[in-house]
Design brief:
Structural class: alpha+beta
Mean pLDDT: 88
Largest sheet: 4 strands, antiparallel
Oligomer: single chain
Number of strands: 7
Low-confidence stretches: 1-7
Shape: globular
Order of helices and strands: HEEHEEEEHEH
Strand content: 15-25%
Strand order of the largest sheet: 2-1-3-4
């Protein structure tokens, strides 16, 4: 698992891939639920250019933890909770709080910059986490 997460971190840090838009018929790769709230979305792009989309950061975390060997990750993206714009996974700051009602109760949201994440953590009685703390 640590090897998978390390490879993901390296791949995400150097990837020149672009995120794939979420469409109305997209389903979460892990839980198979519709991706109805984009502010919680995340995705992995594999080496073949296919997008593996998730409705909750917790789903992407579980998917990676289960070590899906058929997927070689080239890039990862998470949706900024406030702006609803994609940000590269390792560049984001994350906030974990029980006050966030995410689709699969993961309780983790992403922000493009740390200052907004810190404000959100204070407002929602949460903790700011790094990419490694969330996904490794």
């Amino acid at each position: 698992m640590l090897l998978c997460a390390s490879l993901l971190a390296v791949a995400c840090g150097t990837a020149k891939q672009t995120p794939v838009d979420i469409t109305a018929d997209d389903m979460c790769e892990h839980c198979r639920m519709a991706i109805s709230e984009q502010r919680f979305a995340a995705e992995l792009i594999d080496n073949a250019g296919s997008a593996h989309k998730f409705d909750d950061l917790g789903c992407m975390k579980s998917y990676l933890k289960n070590g899906n060997p058929r997927v070689q990750v080239a890039a990862c993206f998470v949706m900024d909770y406030e702006t609803r714009r994609w940000v590269t996974g390792p560049e984001a700051s994350y906030v974990r709080s029980q006050e966030f009602k995410t689709p699969m109760s993961g309780g983790i949201v992403a922000f493009a910059d740390r200052t907004r994440a810190e404000r959100s953590a204070l407002r929602h009685k949460g903790a700011v986490l790094s990419y490694r703390e969330v996904f490794e």
